[in-house]
Amino acid sequence: MAGVKVTQRLAEFVAGTSSEAIGDEARERAMRAVVDTLGVMLAGCREPAARLVTDQVREQGGRQEATVIGAGFHAPAPQAALANGTAAHALDYDDVTMNMRGHPSAPMLPALLAFGEKLGSSGRDILDAYVLGFEVECKLGWAIGEPHYALGWHATSTLGTVGAAAAVTRLLGFTAGQTQTALEIAASLASGLQANFGTMTKPLHAGWAARNGVLAADLASRGFDASADALEGPSGFLRAMSGGADIDMEAAVRGLGDPWEVVKPGIGIKLYPCCYATHRAIDAALEVRRLAGFNTQRIEAVEVHLSQGTLLPLVARMPQTGLEAKFSMGYCVAVALVHGAPGRSAFTDEAVARTSVRALAQRVRAMEDGPDMAYPIEGSARIVVTAGGASFEATVERPRGDPKNPLTWEELAGKFRDCAAFVLGAERIEEVIALCYRIHDLPNISELTDTMSTSEP
Q1: What is the distance between the alpha carbons of residues 457 and 449, in angstroms, rounded to a whole number?
Q2: Nearest 5°: phi and psi at 213?
Q3: Is 374 left (phi over 0), alpha (psi -120 to 50) or beta?
Q4: What is the pLDDT of residues 235-266, one digit of tens each?
Q5: Sheet hosting strand 299-308, strand order edge to edge
Q6: How big is the CA angle at 132 (ends 129 and 134), to the nearest 5 degrees?
Q7: What are the respective helix, strand and coil percentages of the chain, to the nearest 5?
Q8: For FRET with 121, which of 129, 197, 335, 403 sits at 20 to 30 Å CA-CA?
Q9: Residue 106: how many CA atoms within 13 Å on its side-chain side?
């Protein structure tokens, strides 16, 4: 649709929306996202990818503006965002949302925390900025999500860069013009390829998006300039990132904040540290395991019937590493059938080498014969297990943690405790949970980030 000034309208919305217009429901959803993302960030900061990035950030030095979570030092805001964003996505345990077709919080929250510390922003400021950045990520996803993802782009990184920039401009109190410039800069900094799924570079995508979002906002604050139609122009972000598809530009600005994307369709919270496209099948496999009670050694075949598009991000047929296993439907279903709900220990190189799971994974046949949902955040999974001449099956449409099948606060806090135990002691964990629960009342976000700056014995 010609003539839609996407960049300008998004900028005006981010800069001009009042805190009162955001409302408590959207802010509460953002608070839950903060709890979940901080938990997976704490667990992820011990992963090899996060350690390597953190080591590089430490060696570079610079101003001590923002906390590098669990590392015992501070760094310039862009570099802290890089390290923490990589940690947030290192386990592939972070949240997802349908319209963005990716992980909204891992690129955005680290950027907000880094610049929020630098500025001394309040917890309410962080939540409001999160809601607005989330809106930008998802509206851009509405416009190009399907062709963008199908071409091999990683939306978490590409759309996350622009969303992170939008969120940080809110903290900075930018005018609409300044916000527009930051979005224009971010459009050229956005990148990330699905070809690197199953490697350390995938979590780096989230860290790079967080860093570039901070960088774009910071440069705009200094008078840097960019093209006024960097998103919607003939050679702009939306057309380039969709392979020149015929884009409904109005979709990128339609219904801004009505309802808030963070409320509807909302955020999916992961219960398993692997690609979200496997979660319906995992839940179905767990249901079969619970109902049938069969000896897994007697399983002859496993069929996984999926909606069209589900297998697109699942690049590993028979994984050789723990990272590859997160993107293998056969492995994830086999682990669920043999050992139950897969936790972090299921996705190590040693676990992937186990003969019992590998033997069963080779008998898992995944097929897309359900409705065309275009992207695996929506759809269904039906598992049919043949064992001892009998068949057992289960179907799941809404995995636990889905916005329409949400976790309770206690379940969410339980996930946080499990993740944070890698870095923090029990007393500190409860302190962080309490601070998150009242984040909207914190006068300075550093009160929260300071509790996670160093690890405990």
Answers
A1: 18
A2: -65, -45
A3: left
A4: 999 999 999 998 999 999 999 999 999 999 99
A5: 364-372, 299-308, 381-387, 390-396
A6: 105
A7: 55, 10, 35
A8: 403
A9: 38
